[in-house]
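Troubleshooting log. The previous structure file for this entry was overwritten by mistake, so regenerating from the original sequence record. Sequence copied from the archived sheet and checked twice against the printout by T.R.
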Amino acid sequence: MEDQILALTAEVAAIKGAAEVTNRMFAEAYYYITIPLMVLIHAGFLLYEMGATRLQNVLSSGVKNLLAFAFTIAAWYLFGWWFYWALPTWPLDFSAGAGYMEISGLEYANAISWAWGDSAQYMGPNMGDNASGVFWGAFALFAATTASIASGALIERIQTVGFVICAVVLGTAAWGIAAAWGWHADGWLVTKFGYHDFGAAGLVHAVAGFFALGVLINLGPRVGKFNADGSANHLAGHNMPLTVTGLMLIIVGFFGFLMACIILPGEGWSWYGDRATTIYGTPMTLSALAFNVPLAAAGGIIGAWVMTRDPFWMMSGCLAGIISVASGLDVYFGSTVIAVSMLAGIILKPCADWLEGLGIDDAVGCVTVHGTIGLFGLVMLGILGSGLPGLGAFAPEDTVALSLFGQIVGAVVMFLLGFVPGYVVSWLVDKAGMLRIPDEVQIKGLDAVKVPARAYPQGMASPESES
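Regenerated output below.
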């Protein structure tokens, strides 16, 4: 009998061990899949911005997007990851939190981000776990997404080097600090104000949108955008079908983006252990996304169609609809999603027109779609979700609940984290003579001067005819 018990115990242990390995591999594969899905966001932005660009500038816009993707990811590996781990409690507490390996968050960031000593196993090919690499990859794609968001606003008149500098600052420092403060269990916005932003409407979209606004103020409008009396001209892109297709690809990539915002169940993954959670440790399921993301896309399209009947703004409304509810996708019911996203689609074009009336040439509506609607979504969650738990898995009796005040504080912080570095860095780059492309080059066409190739074969409309 004793031998049978021992054999049975060994068999159960073996089955349990195999199940744990399977769960770890499934979780690793889950996050791994989110990464190429998020690459579709960049394919979408590439098509979107090239289509929205005039014929003589198509390839220059494409090159800019490729460089944003490349430089931001490299910079995230070199120092962007450090911001997220080192600064969740800064500037309130320079110890940057504690609890990781019984050392301060700052010490942990130094080790994990720069692969010192034993921590090298977490940032290289001989991984010590199934989580670090795929989490890093997902965060790196979040960082690259912020740069791609901002790039559309700046097309047809920003220098390549100046743009790369701005993209690196946005994708590492601005986004990294925003994520540390508002998307980390020790983040002071979360622990002190109950800030909640499940789908990163504030800390990705609003930060990127208002970073772009700061750059636009120093960059100025494209040649021919505004008349002497201040009225604006419509500078139509060369290929609307390309732009609309690109926007749809961004929506597809959004599913991967939002998948990566869920912490899977299982030891070493979820704080609850047996259920999926948000980054805040509150309950979450993929089913919630399956309901709410398509409804948000539909609501945004309908709202924009009601106001404009314009295909470009309808697809921008689709994106705005998702952003408007991204912060609360884990708590909203479908009827709420439809109402909020439709409202976002309705206000989208009037907000963009108001910004243009101030003399800001936002070529693709980036500031409005991502910045304004991102803040709108944060505040709406404060109105509709006030009183919901904060950090569900971390001593909930001691955590600050979600509130309108906390969401407004978060919205202000995200605006400043985007706008201030965007303005300051672009001002410095401008003073160095590396921001704006000269007017005569804009008139001739950027591809003819900056790119050793043409977007389309001879026989189609020439750059000269578009000038």
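The chain has one domain: 26-456. Archived copy saved in two places this time.
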